[in-house]
Amino acid sequence: MLLIISLCLFAVSPALFFPVQEACTKGRNKLLLISFDGFRWDYDRDVDTPNLDRMAQDGITATYVTPPYITITSPSHFSLLTGRYIENHGVIHNIWFNTTTQEKKQYYKAQFVDDYWDNGSLPIWITAQRQEKNHSTFSKDPFGGLKTGSLHFPATAATYQNETVQVREVESQFYDYTNETDWRVNVDKVMGDWFKTQDLDFVSLYFGEPDQTGHKYGPESPERRDAVRKVDRTVGYIRDTAQKHGLADRLNIIITADHGMTTVLKGNTIKPIILSQIPGFSFRDIKFQLLDYGPNGMLLPKEGMLEKVYNVLKGAHPNLHVYKKEDMPARLHYSNHPRILPLILYADPGYIINGLFPVQTSKGEHGFDNQALDMKAFFRAVGPDFHKNRVVGPFETVNVYPLMCHLLGIKPEINDGSLDNTRHLLVSGGQQCDSKEADQISVVTGLAAVVGFLVVVFIIVSSYNVFKRKRSDVRCDPKAKHEDDVDLKKTAL
What we know:
alpha/beta, globular, disordered C terminus, transmembrane helix, signal, transmembrane, membrane
């Protein structure tokens, strides 16, 4: 009997027939990248956020993530999409500008300047659309690239090497980013239409809060805390809607932000930075300037005036840092691009840079050194490929791109991140399945289970037949029965 039980256990366990396979990422799950603009790493600490807390229990929480310098919207988001530092992808500011014509285009209009974005670095949408998906043999479209979509995400409006995001929606110029009702409409569209009906593989989704509230009222205000509660409700709605459409078990969700926010310092004890009031400085020496956009600025001095302007500004204010572009700290990755102007200025946290006179009224601001703690952003991730209830240490947001490529099963473009910095977030440890190998393993495992079941049936039937023959022989031959009894007694002794 013991032999039969052992054989049965052996038969029903395919793992005993075949080597144990390590978990691996199959690249078959869908992916949603969400950005809540200006959501600082610690915004959920002074607000009750049950949905973000539940997401943390179900997935990954990073202590914080570090955005690239300069810590503003368009450059930071393009780093998420390309995995490149700003000096490498070339979207150096929210403002597009032309130093010859003096023309400037603000954030919204700059979204439509194709050659500003299409500068050699491909966003993940285009890469995914051009590559064959790591498909199952049972996929409906085994030879097509991935299907992507983007709703309101910075860089969505542009064309890259004559190609756009397949499904996209760009907000109107005066769109109200604070409208929670619209947020839910957008979530319904992404989950119900784009993921469920159109079967998209990857979608990026952007929300303009709590950035606007942080600017207007300050990051420590009750209004900002209300904005975080609204974000939390939306996170709950996103996950509930995914569940409603049957997506939860095959959808990875990454939620992060482009930067943090800090309080602008004001009052009689604060010495403002106003370039026109610095002794020896004159705008007559400047050919082009990008100022009055927060804590950073750039200057293009007229020919022969670079050294003069630099020497006048250097050390002119205790909270103003002035660099020639080639001397910028290497850790900031903000010097090696022709669009970056010869003189770069940035202020200490809490200070802003003014040109002729103060024109900025924000109570909260970003754009500071990315090492400042208030510039750090938050990060959550949940889904079938992520560990559950795990807190991880900080990493740079350029690493989100190779992580997303891995989850989608596509080959990344050249980038400045590394999967090595995020593989500990994954159940697979960052091991990518080969699609053919994964299918073969599935088939072999299935066959092993069938064979195991048949072996169990065979053993049971064979044992039963042997038992029947034994009993029949004993009934026909009393002497054999007696000999069997003697054998059993000897065995017992």
